[in-house]
Amino acid sequence: MSPLDKLGRPVRDLRISVTDRCNFRCPYCMPKDVFGRDFAFLQREELLSFEEITRLARLFVRNGVRKVRLTGGEPLLRRDLERLVEQLASIEGLDDIALTTNGSLLTREKALALKAAGLSRVTISLDSLDDAVFRAMNDVEFPVSRVLESIDHAIDAGLTPIKIDAMVKRNMNAGGIVDLARRFRGTTTIVRFIEYMDVGNTNGWRVDDVVPGREIVETLSRDWPLVPADGNYFSEVAERWQYADGAGEIGVITSVTQPFCGTCTRARLSANGRLYLCLFATHGHDFRAMLRGGASDDAITEAIANVWRGRADRYSEVRSENTSDLKKVEMSHIGG
Ligand code: SAM
């Protein structure tokens, strides 16, 4: 039986962060001055092993989860990630295994190995096609051409449909949204524009930096008229828009201006085994202690259900001046 939370939402999607480390230092997510040499990242023994992750994922599936997304940090920094995918793929009842990556380490070989292990598809983050803007946004001088190559590797490996996630921040990359849309228009690759969010406490978020999804749709419509498309499924995060001329679709993720908490069926597991019930949560529930303390499968399954039943989170709907100072978990800790 799938537990329902206090707002009647089931748990369907589990986002699993496999590492809190990243090789990019995007200022809106992991600013260099905070995540520098002295930052205390998780130690190896603190991380859940692949076996521990798989066991927990199986027990989440017992509770109703049907989809897993691997994220981070940068998930491809975790060595042999395809071994984890292979283990997850053996879980009965799990329909979909996806990966969110910055694409920097997605070589042809890696893409093929992930596909062979059972990965269904990838989402690649790409904020700009302009090399100078892209380098400024990853803040480690990583060239955009390498991410574009990774997208080709993912397509060739059949990790499709590929989604491209572009975080949009005013006065940073907002001027490049038409270029991004143009590049993938007419292909099966779907660009999704994400409103800049007040995740964590380190990015200095200001509402003025948010480009509303509505404005993004209006801007693109000037070149190519767009018509709203139905969502694929109940808890889909992106608002989907189709090009009126049939050249494909784009998405906008409007967590700030049009929150979608009412249909949120996502749970998030950090790399050290804490369960977070919201992207903007202030604390997590420790499942590593249960795993390592010898708890039975039944006990862990029940504990997951109990935590979920207590969930009342709907941060994006109650966001205000007062909530922006809450000590929220960093996005690099629990992933997107
Ligand atoms: N390293 C992987 C990647 O780059 O896709 C996975 C983790 S990263 C935290 C996941 C996504 O979160 C990226 O697309 C990133 O742009 C997005 N993100 C991070 N901070 C954000 C913020 N403040 N607002 C909106 N999106 C954000």
Task: Please tell me about this protein's structure.
This protein is α/β, with parallel strands linked by helices. 29% of the residues lie in helices and 16% in strands. It is built from eleven helices and twelve strands. The protein has helices at residues 50-62, 81-89, 108-117, 131-138, 144-157, 177-184, 213-223, 288-292, 297-309, 315-318, 331-334, and strands spanning 13-17, 67-71, 96-101, 121-125, 163-168, 190-195, 226-228, 239-243, 249-253, 266-269, 274-276, 285-286. It has a twelve-stranded mixed beta sheet. The chain is globular and about 60 Å long. The protein starts with 12 loop residues before the first strand and ends with a helix. The model has no long low-confidence stretch (mean pLDDT 95). Residues 22, 28-29, 71-72, 74, 100-102, 125, 165, 167, 194, 196-197, 199, 203, 331-332, 335-336 line the site of S-adenosylmethionine.
